[in-house]
């Protein structure tokens, strides 16, 4: 398992605005989308290419096109939705599947309440997105859902991860590489990432 910290200056600059509590929902939403798009550039770096014959206005030539498996973007509801459009801007042909999980108040374990996935999800390279990798419980459960459907190629993309969340994904899904813009210090007693950005879902959708 690899953890790739994408520390491009544009991503780090925008992440600072995203973290700032004075950034309102409109700007927060826009910048989450932009950072997701910039991260997708790096997350897709290993896509396979094939040679195709084309004709430029000058001559026939061979050129490169993406080949290999089709892609799927899997937002974990609800905050993951904020990252979808940015990635779709770079990969418009990707299909989007949703996985919804809530935390059982007694057992504190994630419970699947919704999932709607492309029928051929098992044949796709999947990019699971959620802005925050906190305890890792939701990410592990969402990946469980995908693997139960036969998925074998999964990447996890988060804006901010905690060391605890990374360790949890590594424990249960060592085959899944994690792409993040930052690894923060720790989780607090309420399961929030410190320093983090607060509740990503509330900040995206203006709820409290
Ligand atoms: N989910 C969030 O939205 N923020 C955190 O800090 C942790 C989990």
TrEMBL record:
Annotated GO MF terms: GTP binding; magnesium ion binding; uracil phosphoribosyltransferase activity
GO biological process: UMP salvage; uracil salvage
Single GO cellular component term: cytoplasm
Classification via InterPro entries: PRTase-like, PRTase_dom, Upp_B, UPRT, UPRTase/APRTase
SUPFAM superfamilies, sorted: PRTase-like (SSF53271)
Gene: upp
Organism, scientific name: Alkalithermobacter paradoxus
Reactions that this protein is recorded to catalyse: UMP + diphosphate = 5-phospho-alpha-D-ribose 1-diphosphate + uracil
Superkingdom of the source species: Bacteria
Enzyme class at the top of the EC tree: transferase
Pathway(s) it belongs to: Pyrimidine metabolism; UMP biosynthesis via salvage pathway; UMP from uracil: step 1/1
CC cofactor note: Binds 1 Mg(2+) ion per subunit. The magnesium is bound as Mg-PRPP.
Family named by the database record: Belongs to the UPRTase family.
Keywords: Allosteric enzyme, Glycosyltransferase, GTP-binding, Magnesium, Nucleotide-binding, Transferase
Start and end residues of each Phosphoribosyltransferase domain: 5-207
Regulation acting on activity, per entry: Allosterically activated by GTP.
Protein name as it appears in the record: Uracil phosphoribosyltransferase
Gene3D superfamilies in UniProt: 3.40.50.2020
Known function: Catalyzes the conversion of uracil and 5-phospho-alpha-D-ribose 1-diphosphate (PRPP) to UMP and diphosphate.
Binding-site residues for uracil, renumbered to this chain: 193, 198-200
Cofactor: Mg(2+)
CDD domains: PRTases_typeI
Catalytic activity, EC: 2.4.2.9
């Amino acid at each position: 398992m690899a953890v790739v910290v994408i520390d491009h200056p544009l991503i780090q600059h925008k992440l600072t605005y995203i973290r700032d509590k004075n950034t309102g929902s409109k700007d927060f939403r826009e910048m989450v989308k932009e950072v997701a798009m910039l991260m997708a550039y790096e997350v897709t770096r290993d896509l396979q290419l094939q040679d195709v014959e084309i004709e430029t206005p000058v001559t026939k030539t061979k050129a490169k096109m993406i080949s290999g498996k089709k892609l799927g973007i899997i937002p974990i509801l609800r905050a993951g939705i904020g990252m979808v459009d940015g990635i779709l801007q770079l990969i418009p042909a990707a299909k989007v599947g949703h996985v919804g999980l809530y935390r059982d108040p007694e057992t504190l374990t994630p419970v699947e309440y919704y999932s709607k996935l492309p029928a051929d999800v098992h044949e796709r390279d999947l990019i699971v997105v959620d802005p925050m990798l906190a305890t890792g419980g939701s990410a592990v459960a969402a990946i469980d859902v995908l693997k139960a459907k036969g998925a074998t190629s999964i990447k996890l993309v988060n804006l901010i991860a905690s060391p605890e969340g990374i360790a949890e994904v590594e424990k249960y899904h060592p085959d899944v590489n994690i792409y993040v813009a930052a690894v923060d210090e720790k989780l607090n007693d309420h399961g929030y990432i410190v320093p983090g950005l607060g509740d990503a879902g509330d900040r995206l959708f203006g709820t409290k």
